[in-house]
Amino acid sequence: MVPFIAQGHLNQLIHLSRLISAYNLPVHFVCAPSHTRQAKLRVHGWDPLSISNIHFHEFPIPAFPNHPPTPNATLRFPNHFMPTFNAIMHLREPFLKLLSDLSTKMKRVVIVHDYLMSSIVQDFVSVPNAEAYIVTCFKLVLLLLLFGSIGRKHKR
């Protein structure tokens, strides 16, 4: 599992980890230490440390500023996330090393990753017994807003 480091993304993939581990499959959860700690503390109804086949791999990333969004920006790109994306690029190399190690011990390695982490897991193609699947972690509210706006006339 390779979640994006925002809380809503972490929560969904840690719960998916629990479901997969219930089938007696090992799950390796890759994240930065502070974000893994947040995910473990905010899980409700079960203790992620009590499940023996969920393994947490914490790889450090540099500190980064947490800028607020610019609501009236002329460019609609969320520039306030750029420091986050730059920091998480430091996960790419340790992830590949872990993947290479796991691939020698297992017949098949399946990577489930947040779509925002595609640049981190992209090297999986160099590992013959690895395959990757993308999870899109949208909130229901976002989907309702998106679908609610379809068919409406927008002011320009």
From TrEMBL:
InterPro entries referenced in this protein's UniProt entry, alphabetically: Glyco_transf_N (IPR058980)
GO molecular function: trans-zeatin O-beta-D-glucosyltransferase activity
EC category: transferase
Chain segments annotated as transmembrane: 132-150
Keyword match Transferase: yes
Cited SUPFAM superfamilies: UDP-Glycosyltransferase/glycogen phosphorylase
EC code: 2.4.1.203
Domain Glycosyltransferase N-terminal: 1-141
Recorded family membership: Belongs to the UDP-glycosyltransferase family.
Protein name in UniProt: Trans-zeatin O-beta-D-glucosyltransferase
Organism of origin: Helianthus annuus
Lineage: Eukaryota, Viridiplantae, Streptophyta, Embryophyta, Tracheophyta
